[in-house]
Amino acid sequence: MDISKLRDIKDWLVDGARSAATPSQMMSECCDRLLRLGVPLWRVGVFVRTLHPDIAGRSFIWRQGAEVEMGTVDFGFESTPAYTDSPLALVFEHGGEFRADPRSPEAERFPILMDLRAEGVTDYLTLPMTFIDRAVHASSWTTKSPGGFTDEQLNAIRSLMPALARYTEIITLRRTASMLLDTYVGNSAGERILGGQIRRGHTDTLDAAIWLSDLRGFTPLSDRLPAEDVVEILNQYFDCQVDPIREQGGEVLKFMGDGLLAVFPIREQDGDPTEVCGRVLTAARASRARVDALEYAVRDNGERFRFGVALHVGRLLYGNIGGGNRLDFTCIGPAVNLAARLEKMAARLKRTVVASEAFAAACPEPWTDLGEFPIAGLAKEQRVFGLREEES
Fold first, then answer.
1. Would you state the pLDDT for residue 346?
2. Residue 53 has pLDDT above 80, yes or no
3. Can you give the residue ranges of the Guanylate cyclase domain (predicted)?
């Protein structure tokens, strides 16, 4: 085996595998290089635990002559037979390597080895990938070579682990940072923060449709129910809105108690306010239907819920606002203030959906003119519109 070429692979990984734009491409190129070096690989897997609200881990599977397959596992996977009856569980829990011949009788206790036996695999090796924080992740290596891996080939694979772990750790940390920003501040804000917009006062102007909603009767509800029930109700209630908002191109910026602030950006060059506001109203109707269908069992009774949403369109200021080294990436401006005031009007008018005059003008729907009303903080009364379908 050419030791200099093996060193080249290690150096390539440590240098960030720059010729590979994605982790999948890195897997493919790394395995192809090992094949050319004389390591007879058949199937290689990398398994990484993640910090994600919905996903417990990710997998990358390379097979000779095929595209890299990416997969995810949900929380609770570690209690399933697919995990407990896998050699990977030994690596994750004990941090050591595991090697077996899938053709041997002792391999029959692992279903994955039986599947690999059927494919003609003759050797199976799992190795830990240890990150700097000592968290253990895993990799698996197989061959169809009649005699399995030679000692020289095994040592070559083992020698790659530190470099592969460093590359995987860096990619995982970047993905985690991006995912956490998306989770807590939204996709657009997350991209801006990662792009370097982290100084206080760094703001942009944005034309957008604005969504501001809250749950009706939340205060008395939270007073008479256990805190755990209130949290569960809020989570289910927000689920009723977040999916429709995202499906229609909106971005949830903030949860404020039982309130939700979202924006639907209108592109400066070719954005169509009518099209954007139409999508906003589609999301509002879908959310209304979901909240109407929401029922939460408390003791022997079923709690039913109502919410109100105010829709407006205008220009807002979008960026970093805060004090000291504690910042919030949010939006402010007269347009947001008006949406907040209109949301209070929804309850007063016993409406689920209310809209400003600007939103109603941009969205040709069967609106009902509810009249002009004084709005706190504004010198001029504002005309408010409601959906005609809600008149009953």
1. 87
2. no
3. 209-343
Segment 145-158 mean pLDDT: 95
134 exposed, middle or buried (CB, 10 Å; 0-12, 13-18, 19+)?
exposed
Of 358, 365, 352, nearest to 382 by C-alpha is 358
CATH code of the domain in which 43 resides: 3.30.450.40
Q: Is 202 helix (H, G, I), strand (E, B) or coil?
A: coil
Q: What DSSP element (H or E) covers 215?
A: strand 203-215
Q: What's the CA gap between 86 and 88, in Å, rounded?
A: 5
**Residue 91 tokens, joined:** 């690596």
Rounded Cα–Cα distance for residues 12 and 5 (Å): 10
Residues 32 and 163 in one domain: yes
Q: CA-CA distance, 302 to 253, in Å (whole number)?
A: 31
In CATH, what number is assigned to the domain containing residue 227? 3.30.70.1230
pTM of the model: 0.70
Of 368, 392, 372, nearest in space to 382 by CA? 372
Sign of CA dihedral 63, 25, 89, 95: positive
CB 121 within 8 A of CB 102: yes
